[in-house]
Design goal:
The structure holds 2 protein chains of 2 kinds. By secondary structure, chain A is mostly beta strands. Chain A has strands at residues 3-7, 10-14, 19-26, 30-38, 45-50, 56-59, 62-66, 70-75, 84-92, 100-101, 105-110. By secondary structure, chain B is an all-beta fold. Chain B has strands spanning 5-7, 10-13, 19-24, 31-37, 44-50, 53-57, 65-68, 75-79, 88-95, 102-103, 107-111. Chain B starts with a strand and ends with a strand. The chains are: A mainly beta, B mainly beta.
Chain lengths: 111, 112
Amino acid sequence: EDQVTQSPEALRLQEGESSSLNCSYTVSGLRGLFWYRQDPGKGPEFLFTLYSAGEEKEKERLKATLTKKESFLHITAPKPEDSATYLCAVRTETSGSRLTFGEGTQLTVNP
Amino acid sequence: DTGVSQDPRHKITKRGQNVTFRCDPISEHNRLYWYRQTLGQGPEFLTYFQNEAQLEKSRLLSDRFSAERPKGSFSTLEIQRTEQGDSAMYLCASSLIRYEQFFGPGTRLTVL
């Protein structure tokens, strides 16, 4: 069974204080790892897709990286508007088109 | 706006009543997905369609749940005889085959 674990559950940062969120996975045949951002009461917003170990993607203050066992979402010099829950999901050889999500990391950036 | 839309955004119902939610996907997307999300958890897969064909249903989807996508465009999710445990956010997503899934704003269901 595919498993996705995100850590930490919650993270508080000061504005400008860089950090990383972790997503570790145990799957059979990764077909894609996805990062989403979710604001309270809203649907997840797509950020990145990573397909193979060593791959990196960047968007503004966010950078996602992938190894064979985990993915990191690096946040550089965060701003209060980066506060949200960040979700990681995988698609695998056995899961077909369904995504298996982790429980998310709730990020709060204080001004 | 050309994103995924869902209606209603909020639904409050009494236990035992039936409810139906609608999802309109991004127009050129041929795959449509339903997920359920409870507080503090990630979304959980329910079912998905490719065009009008329902290709997969989660084992967690009880017989009280049914989904349709009659013309390969919008989809409906019906819950019969609602229970308090059905209270959750119901999310719809759409995609092209093998590409990223884009989510709608969700329907928040509260069962009293």
